[in-house]
Design goal:
The protein is α+β, with helices and mostly antiparallel strands and 174 residues long. 26% of the residues lie in helices and 26% in strands. The protein is globular.
């Protein structure tokens, strides 16, 4: 049985609807979903703000590659188009596999260029860490430490100030 944390983000079209559809697409494996946060773009400032969330999922038959395939399927359903010229550009839906744990609870590590685990930049992204804390307040990012410590360390701490909760948007019920 594997568990995974997935990060969801959208900044094109109906941002909330894209997140909502992704969460509904994970209903069969969904354990818990975070609150929704509005965040400035990361890596490319010339684009609209994002809505972000995190989910904890579990599936006894899924391996790390299965989580990546599922993430890409959700993105495709949302009309995601990958622009190789704008790696951090705008998107209808972005679903990143942040971390995976095997059936013994051990973190899975991968150096595969398509699926590096844990996610190689998660420890630098307040928009990943803050929603993840909602669903696992005492979690650690494998190889990096406690989420709360990472969120308080620079440069992430400065970015964390721009992660705005959106209590008016709820993904767990509608």
């Amino acid at each position: 049985m594997t568990r995974a944390v997935l990060s969801l983000g959208s900044n094109l079209g109906d941002r909330f609807e894209h997140l909502w559809t992704a969460v509904r697409g994970l209903d069969d494996v969904l354990l818990v979903v975070s609150g929704v946060y509005e965040t400035p773009p990361w890596g490319d400032d010339d684009q609209p703000a994002y809505l972000n969330a995190a989910v904890l999922v579990q599936d006894g038959a899924a391996g790390p590659r299965d989580w990546l395939d599922r993430a890409r399927l959700l993105e495709a359903r949302a009309g995601r188009v990958r622009d190789p010229a704008r790696r951090f550009g705008p998107r209808t839906l972005d679903v990143d596999v942040i971390a995976v744990w095997d059936d013994t609870g051990e973190p899975v590590r991968s150096d595969d260029p398509e699926l590096t685990l844990p996610h190689p930049r998660a420890h630098l992204r307040a928009f990943v860490l803050r929603p993840w804390i909602d669903i696992q307040p005492y979690a650690q990012l494998p190889g990096h430490g406690w989420l709360t410590d990472l969120l308080q360390a620079e440069p992430v701490a400065s970015d964390a100030l721009t992660v705005s909760p959106r209590p008016d948007l709820r993904l767990e019920s509608r």
